[in-house]
Amino acid sequence: MTNLVEVRNLRIEAKTDAGRLVEIIKGVSLDIADGEIVALIGESGSGKTTVALSLMGYARPGCRITGGEINVNGKNMAALTERERARLRGTDIAYVPQSAAAAFNPSSTIMEQVIEVTRIHGLMPPEQARKRAVELFRALSLPDPDGIGARYPHQVSGGQLQRLAAAMALIGDPKLVIFDEPTTALDVTTQIDVLKAFKSVMKAGGIAGVYVSHDLA
User: Fold this and answer.
1) How far apart are CA 32 and CA 3, in angstroms?
2) Per CATH, the architecture of 3-213 is what?
3) How many CB atoms lie within 10 A of CB 155?
4) Which of 14, 23, 128, 210 is 20 to 30 Å apart from 62, CA to CA?
5) Residue 1 above 80 pLDDT?
6) 118 vs 179: CA distance, rounded Å
7) Residue-averaged pLDDT of the chain
8) Residue 98 in contact with residue 44, Cβ under 8 Å?
9) Could you count the other beta carbons within 10 Å of the beta carbon of residue 203?
């Protein structure tokens, strides 16, 4: 099986309030195969999200990658220009944030925002993008898949909004999706339903995933 992601000896430093540089990620290595889902588990502040974001070529404010190598889909992230990394994030790699509410613009419809990445990167015509979005809404077990796109973010529940954030990430047919504690703000029953929906769509599409969590349950 081919590795989609290869990380070797990743090292990341962060600046403290006193201005000192402290190494917070020390020699992390991991492989993710095509279609494989892996979890980054650890307590709050342990560096899970920092490692996950590095796979997208991001460094959190005050942090910098000081060593190691990150290859995604055969591309060395450090060797890419910022424009090339931005293109990769819109096509090969997608991200589902912890707070879907913060990811959506309250003044735009859900459909406008879900298909925006296809317009920015020229992935498909608008009508095809809207059709693809409805397919994802249905696959993610959202109510009224044909009509929910016309609503605004405040008109759906937290669990529905988290699934819509996943639809936004998946619409460009990425090879890798990073889920950054996407169910933290949801009740336990809703968490189970949302995770089942995520897993079903990822498995059907053969999409690899990184699931960040502090909760082993």
Assistant:
1) 6
2) 3-Layer(aba) Sandwich (3.40)
3) 12
4) 210
5) no
6) 20
7) 91
8) no
9) 12
